[in-house]
Each structure stands twice: as structure tokens, then as C-alpha cells.
Amino acid sequence: MRRASVENMRKALMRSNTRLLLSAVMLFQFSAMLLIAFQERPYDAQALILAAAIPAATWLVTMLFGKIWPVDRAIVILAMLLCSVGVITLSDIARAKSTPMTQAIYAAVGVGAMAFGIAFIRGLKSWKRLVAPAMVLCLLALLSPWVLGKWQYGARNWIVLVQDRLTIQPSEFMKPALILILAAGFSGRPRFLKCVPTIAFAALCCGVLLSQRDLGALLLYFLTTVLMYFAATSNWVVTIGGLGLGGAAAVIAYRAFPYVQTRVAIWKNPWIDPLESGHQIVQALIAIGSGGLFGMGLGLGRPRNIPLYHSDFIFAAIAEEFGLVFSICLLAIYVLVILRGMVVAMNARTSFHSLAAFGIVAMLGLQTMLIVGGNTKLIPLTGVTLPLVSAGGSSLVSTFLSFGILLGISSLNAEDEAKDIERMELREEVFS
Amino acid sequence: MSDGLYEILALAARYFFAALFLLIVLRAARITLRDGRRAKKLRRWAPETGLSGELMVVEGDERAKRGMRYPVIREGVLGSGRAADVRIRHSSVRNRHARFELTEDGLLVTALEGARLLSSEGRRARKLLARDGDSFWVGKVRLMLVLIDAAGREGEIAADDGLFDAPAEATMDSPDGLFGDSDELDEDFYE
Amino acid sequence: MRELRGKIRLVGTLIVCLFIGLGAWYGMTVYSQGSVWASNPYNQRSSGSTAHMGDISDRDGNLLAHTAADGTREYMPNENVRRALSQTVGDQMGMSGTGVENYYSSTLLNISGSLVDRLRSAFSGAERVGGSIQLTIDAELTSYIASAFPDGKKGAVCVINYRTGEVLSWVSMPNYDPVDLLDGRADDNVEDTAYLNRCLQGLYTPGSTFKIVTLAAALEADPNALNQRFTCSGSWDYEGGKIVCAGGAVHGELDLRTALAESCNVTFGKLAYQLGAERLRATAERFGLNENLKFGDFMIYNSAFPVSARNVGGLVWAGVGQGEVLVTPMHMAMIAGSVANGGMMMKPVLVKRIENSLGIATHTGAPSLYRQVTSASVADVITQSMYQAVRSGTASKAAIPGYTVCGKTGSAETSDDKSVATNAWFAGFVADPEHPYAVAVVVERGGAGGTVAAPIAQKALKKAIEVIG
User: Fold this and answer.
1) How many CB atoms lie within 10 A of CB C8?
2) Angle A160-A164-A166 (CA atoms, 0-180°, nearest 5)?
3) Does the model's pTM come out above 0.80?
4) Burial of B166: CB neighbours in 10 Å, binned 0-12, 13-18, 19+
5) Alpha-carbon separation of residue A153 from A157, A213, B14, B161, B191 (angstroms)
6) Which range among C72-76, C329-333, C435-439, C456-460 shows the weakest confidence by mean pLDDT?
7) To pair with A21 at 20 to 30 A between CA atoms, which of A219, A259, A373, C344?
């Protein structure tokens, strides 16, 4: 196989210099962790270690991944930034020292998963053939909590691997798998009838999630499926019909399930019951309000007043300590990741890769919007987590895996662009 | 560190973190915009990305005259509409006439909803696999496929000392080949 | 592929736009509502700051709370006075969420104070002091009312100035001693619910005091209603039930004014029935029920008027303030005040003045209109009726010689068990622009409003005239 010439590679990738970005990110990570290290007297050893380790890891991962594969470095840097915001916030507010350390370890595992994702998508050739076995595996994994699982926070979607230490949430890992299956099923703009098995599979997954009371994941799966179907087939009728069905199902769920009704009632006016049912959202709003424009300062707020401050409401905790400006910038980072991901999707060569990249980014965006909306009382709480930032091993690793797939697709794009450039040149030479 | 001193530091740090994060966001946004502009430039210069070959008109009339060439990408739609990836403007060709997809064995062409697709022998087909040099009918237009990374057609290719591979190695997707020797490439070049 | 790209671009743009919308909405909401959220009584972010808490004083400048040089918090020396003011002033542990020490902790501690301020104090070695707050409350009046409140009973008294909206006194029984909380431990001897400020947080069935609103609705619907004569035979049947006058009274023929003065349930039940749920609710909502009563200085729990046209019995009894109608004493005082003030309900003001640590005033409370809840002429008629109630009706025990006192009593039933005493209510005012005071009294399980609540109100108004002028 012919090697790409250096010249063409350069022209193809033609990506901006990310050095300044990387330095700024590393500086932020270092200074934040350093400040946290001095919260304790005389200093917090674990935080100091992290202060050195996090920027080093970010640099290493960016350089390494960029060297091995021609991935989009900006996405790598932004992903590492988001993950480190999570570790930093947890170091600051978590009660137990082990929480940020666990998160950092999961992040390391996540980086490995990211590498796996890149290699996987690059090596995947015959996706159409793998769809059926993949579906079966997925459903089995989703159903596994029924067999091995336990109830937690009112939902039964966890598997305990090591008692009290290691639990995983299969519905999180099924997210990238679902996207790949949907991408393979919808690739090549099939007619509606051809799509039915894929849609049926997605519906089945949603059903399993419904029985496990995992409403947030259910909503995400449903919306992502609809969006991917629409992008793949441009079939307005079915899409709108699907959305309508979803809306009707939501109304039925509201009428039928009391816990849905309480959620909506709390969302409408949490202030009337600030100690019981409205407690979560009231404390979250108080925290966000206390933060003001620039925050209360690292370590000066009281984010532990917010229930679930480390997972569902971590955005409110960040807004409290870091302020409005910072949290809006955090949202902007997500937007930038989505933008770059969309570009990757549009530059992909096959519809499978294009849809896969699109699905990953769409799901990321939807998830972020759901959780930030829930934190700020725009929409009722849905129990999804802020991707890469919230504490939670399964969510973190699976999001990294999705990012890996996205990066892998971006690397394929880069290589193809280089090949294109050569061929253009050759074509001119040959046919001119 | 005393509590008071920490408080002062943390309060000052608020502005620092906000400014730094803002800088990060702006920088990332600028990078994205610049990449977008460069990609647009690249696309103008090399509009047919994912180029894998060409379809040449062997027999046709109206606006699809003989000798006209259409670049072929890896996957797309063949038709006369504006959204088609290979746009053949001929009255016998529908808006969305057929789908094509490049596989290991060649170009897989699938007719959409009863469109007229004939093999090189003239037999009506719903799906056909075209290899390099094969021709087929789309509507009333006859097209011949020329693949870049495919089996040799003597003459034109022979002149290019081994630039095009022999069929046995005509695999589209072995990307490690491209970067197996990446250490020879200077990292700075694709920063 | 081109179509796919196009769709991706479309959906991608949609998602990005939604995100930008989300960000903009979030930014705007926090910018406008953030400080309101932060001043929620359940915000416990006060403790842990290194500044000294500023002073809280009453309208005459008496220090209600002060931080000594060594950092200890001091309250008024007299225990009874301390206890009377406990829920208003608050405490160091934030047990009384609506107390000023908690609600205004960020001001008192100067939490969002500038970096420069902190640096200055760090270098000068002096302790940082937060801002000081002067309340509109009158300490002498408050402690007097608290001592006049019947022993062993629970309830609340609110006194306001209905022309400016200033809160002159809040008394909530049972109360506690904030000094007991200074050592950081909650006192086990404190009575249950002592930390609650019943004026703001106590939702009670208003009973006959709600007839003020029903009368307003009737007069608005038909100004000619004054000329109507009603007949009360002691009871009245409606579809599905019967309404009776309290104590088996039979009032015979009367006009609206007398009906209010004598507190005739039958007449008001009929009025409610004739008005219908929609009109009665509309008036109630204009008076502020079913509304988020969130003011700049504090928040009152929402009064509720959950009456629908389907439930006839509920409607009829709501007309006399029974059923599921709920009102806070503070809101009732505001309602009485609005009647006195020509139908204008003023925004309640608790904070007279806020000064920062340098003595510069950063906020001065000023009167502002909340809403015109009813027309001046309707208010006038209601005032006359309430005057008749005091002169010759159920509220006679509230009369003060030499002053025009108007009021409405109430004896609210809270349970179907007839052995449980009713809540005694009184809502009224002094109809004198020189002494614009309105009062609301509720005594839980107190008995009849006229015998229990009216005397307390009389004492409160008399003392207010004496002390404040």
C-alpha cells in the first residue's frame, strides 16, 4: 500500500496548532489542584500528586494518541479537560478522599477504553455481518441486572462485581454499542421495511430500560434512535410519527406512573416542599444562586448541601464554586466537542462511519442538555449524568469508549483525505 | 496555610479560573473555525473527497454525452437530482436512481424502487456488481467504471511505474500500511 | 452521502442552537434570579466565614443582635424580649430559617464582599465586620404583644403599617431563646415548632375573616348588592349539604354590612353560591391567594384557594373561609391593610436600612404598591362593615375608645370533632391615617374569635398607637 507523502499528509490534516490550547488546559488543571491541595493543613498529598499527574496525563495522552493515529487532537484535549474538571471538582467537594482517586483510576481505564475504541473502529470492516450477534449480546447485557443485579436509587440497572466496591451499569456500556448497531442498521439509506429489525431492537432496549426504571437512559436511547433514523433516511413521516409515539408514551407514563407525576410536580414548584420532595432541586438552585458570576471560590462553598452533588447535581456544585461564567464556558466546551464531532461525521466516507460519529455526538449533546436542564429547573430531573464530569465509573469509561470511536473515525477521515489528495495529483498527472 | 489566607487565595483564584477557562474556550473555538475554513478551502481544491474511481459515459445523449466523466466516491446515490452524489442529468435517469457502494469486490449498484438498471449483457437487474472496466446501463445511459486502486488496464497505467497497485493488493482499508512507518514522519508536520 | 451530510448538518445545527438557547436561558435566569434563590431560608452557607456578623436593630435603633469584639453574639438582655423576637431575628444555627440572621446572612457577614475588603482586614489585623440591618420591627411592641398572648396557646400576631407596608411586629408562639443556640447545639428543651415563624409559615383555615374577600367579590360583581336584603333562618340547604350559622344563631333579615358585622354564615354561603367558583376565585387571587408571595425582604408561604366549580359544598363553605382555604396570618394582615388603604395592598417591607461596615447605607426600604386588590369604593363599604362589627357586632372587644377600629372576627373549625376548639381569628385595623396600623391574630384552639383574638388585637393596636405614634 502506498505511503502518503509528507506533503500531502500535511495538507490533508491541515489542522491548527493545538499547543496553546494544551498548555492552557494543563495550566488550569495544575493550578486548580494546587489550590485544592492547600485546603488542608499543611497540605493534601493526594491532591498534590494529582496536581502533577493530571496535566502530565493529559499531555501524554494527547501526544501519544496524536502520534499513533492521526486523530483530531482538539477533541482529545477537550475530552481530557472535561474529565479533569470532574476529578478536580470531586477532589474539592467529596467527603471521602477515595472518591476523586477512584474517579482518576476510572479515567485511566477510560483512556484505555478510548484507545480500544479507536483501534476497534479502525479495524471494523464488515459491520453489516456483525449486527445480528451484536444485538443479541446487547440485549443479554441489558437484561443481566435482572439476574445479577440490585436496586439502587430506585432503579434496577446495576451489576455488582465486587461487593460494595465495584458496580457497573450495563445500560451505560450499551450506549456506544447501540449507536454502532443503529449506524450499521441504518447505513445506506434503507427503506422503512429494512429498518424494522433495527428499530425493533431499539424498542426492545427501551422496554428493558423502562422495566428497570431507568428513565433517563430510556429517553436518551429513544431520542438518539429517532435522530439517527431521520439523518439516515430523511423520512419525515416516520420520524414525526416516532416522535409523536414517544410523546404519547410520555403522557401515558405520566398518567400511569406516580413517580413520574411526583417528578413533574416537583419540577413545577419545588419551593413548596423544600425539605422533602423538592429538596434536591431547591438546594441545587440555591447553590447556583450563591455562586453568582464568579463563584464562591474553590472550597468556600457548601456544595455538600446539595444531594447527589457528585453525580446528578455536579453541575450545580460547579456553578456554586466556580460561578456562572465558568459554567457557561463548560457548556461551550461541550458545544465545541459536538461541533467538531459533527464535522467528523460529515467528513466520513461511508454512511456507517458517518452515522456512528453523528450518533455519538448527538447522544452526548442530548445527555448534557438533559442534565443541565434538570439542574437548572428547565426540565424535570431525568437521572442522567454529566458526561465525563460526573462521578461514576461505568458512565466515564463508556463515554471515553464513545470518544474513542469518534476519534477513530476522525483518524480514518484524515487518512482518506490524504489519499484523496494524492489521487487528485496523480489523476491530474495521468489524465492531463 | 491559615484559613484566612486560603480564603483570600481562593477568592482571587475565582477570577483567574474564569479567565483561564474563557481563554480555553475561545482558543478551541478559534481552532475549530480555522479548521472549518481550511476544510472548505481543501474541498474547493479537491471537491470529490473519498474518490475511488470514475464512471465514464460510453453511450448517452442530452446532457450526459459520451466521454463525460463522473467521479465516484465510496458510497452514495446515483441520479439526476441535485442531492445525488453522482449526478447524471438525463431524462431517463430518476432523481434518486440507484445506490452504489464500494466493496472489496467492486462497485455494488442497487437500483431504487424499480428504476431501470441493466447489466453489461443487457439483462435487467436489481443489484449488480461492477468491477473495474465493467459497464452497465442506468436508464438509457451506458456507464463504464474505472477504479483507481484496481486491476490494471494496460496502457495508461503502465506508464505510471507502480503507482497503482495490482489487484491482489487492492484493499481499500489497511490503514496501518499508511502509518506503519510513522516514525519516519516528523511529528511536527501534522501538528 | 450528500443527503446524509445535509441531514447531519441540519440536526447538528439544531442541537447546537438548542444548546445555545439552553446556555442563554441558564445565564439569564441565574443573573436575574440567582440572588433570590440564594436568599432562600434553607441556604446554609453562612457559617464558616471568618467575618463578624453585623448588627441587627429595630426601627428605634435598639440593638437586637450584636457581635462583641471577642466574636460572641449578643442579643437583648431581657429574656422575654429575646424570645418574642426570636423567629424574626433568627439565631446562629439557622434553626429559624426565616430569621434575619439566616435569611440575610450573606449581608450580615459580607460574604460576597470584595477581595479588597478582605485583604484590607487581613493586613490591618482588624476583624472584618459585615453589614448592619435596621428592621422596621418595633421591639417594645413585639415584646408587649408576646406577653399579652394567652399562656400555653400557640398562634401568631402580625402588625403592619398599611400605608407603607412596614412590618411592625411579628409574634409567633411558641418561641425560643436564641442565646441557647449560641454554643452550637440545638436545645432539646425547646418546644416543637418553636423555630417556625407562624406569621409567614403558618397556613391556617381563615374562618369568618375570609368573609372580607367574599364581600369584596360580591360587591365587585354587583354594586347594587348593598341594597339587597338577605334572610337568614339559621341554616340554608344547598345541593348536597347544609350551612349553619355559628352557635345556632338566627339573624333574620339583614343587609350585607350587618351580615359581615354579625358574621352570618348563611348569607355568605349564599353569596359564594351565587358568585360561583370562578368569580370568587378571581377575587381571591387578586387578593393574593394561590400566588407565590415572594417579596424582596422575605417570602410568605402561599395561601391557597383550591375551589372548583364541581364541588358545590366546597364553594359554599369557602365563602365563609372553611374547607380547604388556607391563609397565613401575615397575608391576612395584608388583606385587612389593603381594605384600610383604599384597596391598595402595599409590598411588605421588613428592612428599613442596610449599612455596610463603613457605615454607608446600601439599601433603604421604601413603600411600593403591590397591587390594587379591589376598588376604593368597595374597600370603603367593607371598612364600614368592619366598623359596624366592632361597634355592635362580633368584634366589639377590639374597640379602643377614641379611635376608629374596624375588624372581622373568625372562629375557624379545623376538625370534624366538635370537641376540638376552633382557631380564634381577628383581622382588623385602625381607620386613621395618623395611625395606619393593621393587625391579624390567630390563636390555635383558642375558641371564639370575638372573645379570644379580638382582645389581643385591641391591646396590640393600642400599644402600637402608644409606642409608634
Assistant:
1) 24
2) 55
3) no
4) exposed
5) 10, 10, 34, 68, 46
6) C72-76
7) A373
pLDDT at C39 over 70: no
Neighbours of C123 (CB within 10 A): 8
Measured in degrees and rounded to the nearest 5, phi and psi for residue A171 equal -60, -25
Q: What is C207-350+366-468's CATH topology?
A: Beta-lactamase (3.40.710)
* Strand-strand pairing, C361-364 and B135-138: unpaired
A274 contact residues in C (CB cutoff 8 A): 40, 42
CB contact under 8 A, A329 and B25: yes
Over the stretch A156-189, which tens digit does the pLDDT of each residue have?
566 666 666 677 777 788 889 999 999 988 887 7
Position A54 pLDDT exceeds 70? yes
| CA distances (Å), origin C174, targets B76, C79, C334 | 79, 14, 23
Inform me whether the pLDDT recorded for C119 exceeds 90: no
Whether residues A301 and C45 touch (CB distance < 8 A) is answered with yes
Q: Residue C208 above 70 pLDDT?
A: yes
Closest CA to A424 of B48, B56, B154: B48
- C459 to chain B nearest CA, in Å? 51
Interface test mutation site (partner A, options B11, B27, B108, max chain A beta carbons within 10 A): B27
Cell of C274: 351565587
What does the DSSP assignment read for C98-109? TSHHHHTHHHHT
- In this structure, which amino acid lies at residue B64? A
Dihedral angle, C-alpha C444, C450, C453, C458, nearest 10 °:
180
Given a cut of 80, whether residue A300 has pLDDT beyond it is no
Question: What average pLDDT does range A351-368 have in this prediction?
Answer: 94
Which of A271, A320, A371 is the best substitution to test chain C (most C C-beta atoms within 10 A)? A271
Q: Which residues of chain B have pLDDT under 70?
A: 1, 42-50, 149-191
Other CB atoms within 10 Å distance of the CB of residue C71: 10
Collapsing DSSP states into helix, strand and coil, what is residue A315? helix
CA dihedral C305, C308, C314, C316 (to 10 degrees): 90
A107-121, A343-357, C189-203: lowest mean pLDDT where?
A: C189-203
Report the share of chain A in percent with pLDDT over 70. 87
Q: Which residues of B touch A17 (CB under 8 A)?
A: 191
- Chain A interface test: which of C1, C2, C3, C4 (most A C-beta within 10 Å): C4
Q: Where are the domains of chain C?
A: 207-350+366-468
Q: Which residue bears the cell 436564641?
A: C178
Torsion over CA: C88, C92, C95, C98 (sign): positive
Most confident of A72-86, A197-211, A252-266, A308-322: A72-86
Residue C89, SS3?
helix
CA distance C10 to chain B (A): 15
- Cα–Cα distance measured from residue C159 to residue C350, given in angstroms and rounded to the nearest whole number: 12
What is the reported pLDDT for A367? 94
Interchain CB distance below 8 Å, B178 and A3:
yes
How far is C458 from chain A, CA to nearest CA, in Å? Answer: 34
Domain spans, chain A: 6-431
Query: How would residue C48 be classed by pLDDT, with cut points 50, 70 and 90?
Result: very low
| Interchain contact C8–B (C-beta under 8 A) | no
Express each pLDDT in B122-157 by its tens digit. Answer: 788 888 888 888 888 888 888 888 887 654 333 343
Cβ atoms within 10 Å, residue A219: 20
The minimum CA-CA distance between A176 and chain B, rounded to whole Å, is: 23
DSSP labels for C91-142? -TT--STTSHHHHTHHHHTTTT--HHHHHHHHHH-PPPB--EEEES--HHHH
Say if strands C299-300 and C155-161 run parallel, antiparallel, or are unpaired. Answer: unpaired
What is the C-alpha to C-alpha distance for residues C429 and A80, in angstroms, rounded to an integer? 67
